[in-house]
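are you around this afternoon, could really use another pair of eyes. what follows is a protein written twice so to speak, once as letters and once as structure tokens for the fold. i want to understand how the tokens follow from the sequence so walk me through it. anything you notice is useful, everything is just below.
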Amino acid sequence: MTFFSKAILLTTKNDEAFIQLKCAHIEQSLGLPKGFVEVFKNEPDTEDSKRGCFNAHYDVYCYIAENKLSNCLIFEDDVHFLSKVSPSSYQQFLNEQEWDVFYFGHKPDFRQDTYAKRTEYSGIIKVRTNDRHAYAMNLEFAKLMARKPWTGIFGDRLLRSSTDKAFALVPGRAIQVGPWGTASHLNGITEKFSEYLRLAWQKPFRLFDFLKYSLLLLFKMPYWSIYCSIIALKSKK
């Protein structure tokens, strides 16, 4: 049995081989049963891609609310897990604590009103962040978000401003990947950059962590840049 009632993959692609591989990748990374990920296909919004992305997620919130699904996973089709995620790393927290959103990957952009705060749980931080390529949402919060249709506010920003009960695994296990030069390719790099920078300054401040993540920022970012670029070169347009 899994903690989640459903996992949903959002895509505008018609490449069935790609979609099947992506579903299998998510299932294997999170230890989900084979065939557990359900695909929601959306038509691209050719006039406003941000609105199209917003509505794809918004439709999922409405679906969760209408079907009274307790806890759901939501993924975008550019998600890539860097390592397998054991349920033991998050399940106790989700069972014991109040939460609305739980991120497996995100971008706490230092240029915006984001933050990372320690919790009493090892490997879990409280966040105000960006990106919605890999996250979980509970039913009550989905009901709230289902009452907030498109008004021109980007979806990740509306999400973060709608709750103070958002949490994330640390380090992040899921990044975005995509063909060279695309937003997905660049996000994969900047997600790690933002993570290290925010964790260096997470609250309350600790000198050891500041030094640790500052060093990672300096010495591990070249690795992540190369890693994401190799995947980008292998990705289809």
The CA atoms of residues 105 and 174 lie 4 Å apart. Strands lie at 6-11, 37-41, 71-76, 79-81, 101-103, 115-118, 124-128, 134-138, 166-169, 174-176. The helical segments are 16-30, 49-67, 91-96, 139-145, 155-161, 183-200, 207-219, 221-234. The chain has a mean pLDDT of 96.
